[in-house]
Amino acid sequence: MMKLQLAIDLEDIDGAINLIEKTQESVDIVEYGTPLVINFGLEGLAKIRNRFPNLTLLADVKIMDVASYEVSQAFKYGADITTILGVAEDQSIRDAIKVAHQAKKELLVDMIGVHDVARRAREIDQMGADYIATHTGYDLQAQGETPFATFNTIKENVTKTKTALEGGIKLTNLDEIKQANPDLLIVGAGIATNDDPTSAAKSFKAAIK
Ligand SMILES: O=C([C@H](O)CO)[C@H](O)[C@H](O)COP(=O)(O)O
């Protein structure tokens, strides 16, 4: 069954806690977004972990190097899943997967910025990552891009890695989401900046059942 991940990017720690309280019934995974990592560090993640001991938490650290160390730090501060970039060196991705699996945690490879998507998806699939995410970042969303076509290319080129779809997903995209049918749907602003985040999260959850 498709899971729903709420990406929290635009809040401070109190705001993140408030948003989790409003939406946690409908979301499977909460993402501690990259802007929060930059603004509040992993100490902020630890505060959220202390407040919600049973929540599945993803730390969007978008690792590029020193993978073993950075992955273990994210887990030490409370993450269950962490992210590395698909454009990182193979060695870094292999190290990240190894450390994650030794800790009985999961690793998501974010394909933002990858140009030869089909080939890289096959390589990541062979390395044994848990998730591979198609990601249209904010900078390309602003140019009108969406992740759906790239998602299909990735899905066609993996055999065992769970697929994730992210980047500007809104409630108006429900038809495309159902057609894409990812294992994990990642939604940030589509829930967080909605006037009623509780009902937006509920609507996403009901639609992907
Ligand atoms: O990873 C993200 C982005 O790079 C900012 O850190 C977002 O969490 C991701 O794009 C999901 O958020 P929305 O695009 O607002 O749905």
UniProtKB/TrEMBL annotation:
InterPro entries listed in its UniProt record: 3-hexulose-6-phosphate_synth (IPR017553), Aldolase_TIM (IPR013785), HPS/KGPDC (IPR041710), OMPdeCOase_dom (IPR001754), RibuloseP-bd_barrel (IPR011060)
Reactions performed catalytically: D-ribulose 5-phosphate + formaldehyde = D-arabino-hex-3-ulose 6-phosphate
Record's keyword annotation contains Lyase: yes
Family annotation (CDD domains): KGPDC_HPS
One GO term of the biological process aspect: L-ascorbic acid catabolic process
Pathway terms, separated by semicolons: One-carbon metabolism; formaldehyde assimilation via RuMP pathway; D-fructose 6-phosphate from D-ribulose 5-phosphate and formaldehyde: step 1/2
Orotidine 5'-phosphate decarboxylase domain sequence ranges: 3-204
GO molecular function: 3-dehydro-L-gulonate-6-phosphate decarboxylase activity; hexulose-6-phosphate synthase activity; orotidine-5'-phosphate decarboxylase activity
UniProt entry keywords in alphabetical sequence: Carbohydrate metabolism, Lyase, One-carbon metabolism
Family, as annotated: Belongs to the HPS/KGPDC family. HPS subfamily.
Matches recorded under NCBIfam families: RuMP_HxlA
Name under which the protein is recorded: 3-hexulose-6-phosphate synthase
Organism: Fructilactobacillus florum 8D
